[in-house]
Amino acid sequence: MSPPLLQVNDLKKHFPVSKGLFGRKSEWVYAVDGVSFEIARGETLSLVGESGCGKSTVGRAILRLFDITSGQVILDGQRIDDAHPSTMRQMRRRVQVVFQDPFSSLNPRMRVRDILAEPIRNFGLAKSAEDLEVRVTALMDTVRLPREALNRRPHEFSGGQRQRIGIARALAAEPELIVCDEAVSALDVSVKAQIVNLLQDLQQKFGLALLFISHDLAIVEHMTHRVAVMYLGKIVEVAPRREIFAAPRHPYTKALLSAVPLPEPGAQRNPIILGGDVPSPINPPSGCRFHTRCPYVFDRCRTEEPQLRAAEGDQWVACHLDALPAG
Amino acid sequence: MALLEVENLQTHFRTPSGINRAVDGVSFHVNEGETLAIVGESGCGKSVTSMSLMRLIPEPPGRIAGAIRFAGRDLLKLSDREMRAIRGNDISMIFQEPMTSLNPVLTVGRQIRETLMIHQGLDKQAAEAHAIEMLTLVGIPEPKRRVREYPHQLSGGMRQRVMIAVALACNPKLLIADEPTTALDVTIQAQILKLMLDLKSRVGAAIILITHDLGVVAEIAERVMVMYAGRKVEEAPVAELFRSPRHPYTQGLLGAVPRLGSSLTGTARRLAEIPGQVPDLRKPITGCVFAGRCALATDLCRQYAPGLEEKAPRHVAACHYAAKGAVAA
């Protein structure tokens, strides 16, 4: 069996925060604290969780937008977390990103043509000026934007159209993996549907793998093959779509799913309302990080941190409760 | 009995490139104790409508016309002074972003006290006691300590609770909630929605809920008004609207949201797209506002704007074809 496209082993990223008048007393934000997962070719893995759970930090670590604290990021069998800049350059072509805000992620001074041509030139993908032009127009067709729009600048487009430009730019580098960091979250309902459909079509067409970072569980269910649920810098559950949505095992996953309001008036649901707020990642709770809000907490949870272990088939859960015999 | 009656509301803004008809002839009412949701996408005029009700639109460049009758009085005819006595007292508002709507340099307690001292004429001690009561009511732990804290010391969910406490301090008859949970995480959203439902049954205020989230609408609204390009295109009781939407735009919106659990029931399908974009509101629109994006549009739609017609009991829609039943998705 060929290795997975992307492998993340025990990834940690801690950010320093300075306290005190002259920033002397330094504390750490444990943004991502030991996360492991794999993504196969052509697969969509979704990272879900609430603000501050570290899902975007994982995405950025894979893109190597900063150096990680410890752990490994392996792309196609080759470590990229400590790769030399010259090898990193080629690796960067293979992993691209689409950001949330299409207003701040496109250079307002550049024409669409140049925005799309830049990655093609940068990675030397075009053989000639004609080839470059062919590629750029093909990209516009792929993301269903009119070719005339190539000479316009980002401010002339609506949010949905800009997100299409962002996607075209990511595709320009011919990547194998695209990190979509809340790529549809800022869009209106009808436009969101257009972009979701586009991403699904592109995945089919190019065999792309997607790391889909989102807090919108209904969209995730619609798009994904597998889901990893994060809470305070840890993965608490990872499983194929069917298992997560039909039979979530971790109490946090259950609460998260039950909290989503359904567009069905009078629907019978029993939301599990969690008390309190997410604790600070500067000083995460001892033992299981979810124990301060968990409705099923018992003594062991407060002291011992549960490890992610296989519950059933491909469903992995980090919960002491799950390790107990059923009943 | 109608607590609020809005008639032919028009809120226009003068801009260098023409007059923007952000809200163009919208009429609706809210009964006492009722929850009305106003739904639509960015730029449909839902927030401008709510700001107009509170008369928070700067004039100029804005201009509000029509009638807004609240408990029998036309708010548009009141003096600024009379309007101030109503804002925060009879009608209050909560916004999407609690960090920008709370004053960062005043304690939470002082901000709740302020409305009580101005509108209810309470003295400082009485207002303080009431502020603590309000914080308890909205479920903030340790309210005695929290009244002395500043907004930055609270989490997003807590701040929204404080906003609700400020809004409800004077027992308003109408609460306008503009995207109250949009900026919150889903587990916190569940807390706030539950709080709003609990408080509504206890305080009995009518609520106008402005949102783009159809899940939130289904959860707490009784009646729904759908807006598009500054017009009201459909209105119906919530169950009726979700069961049999009549306007093609409403049908499009409902088809564009994936349902949680769809992968399990085998109902997963490609999401419906509404092609094209919202029209430019600075240009006069002849015919139906949705015609440019509507699959059913004919020459009739492009030439004559459809009026709001009753398609079923208490269910109105502005569509030439909705009545024929041909648009059922």
Automatic annotation (TrEMBL), chain A:
Top-rank lineage group of the source organism: Bacteria
GO biological process, one term: peptide transport
Topology in membrane: Peripheral membrane protein
Chief localisation class: membrane
Cellular localisation: Cell inner membrane
Gene3D superfamilies: P-loop containing nucleotide triphosphate hydrolases
InterPro entries xref list: AAA+_ATPase (IPR003593), ABC_transp_ATP-bind (IPR050319), ABC_transporter-like_ATP-bd (IPR003439), ABC_transporter-like_CS (IPR017871), Oligopep_ABC_C (IPR013563), P-loop_NTPase (IPR027417)
Molecular-function GO term, any one: ATP binding
Job of this protein: Involved in beta-(1-->2)glucan export. Transmembrane domains (TMD) form a pore in the inner membrane and the ATP-binding domain (NBD) is responsible for energy generation.
Family recorded in the similarity comment: Belongs to the ABC transporter superfamily.
Protein's UniProt name: ATP-binding cassette domain-containing protein
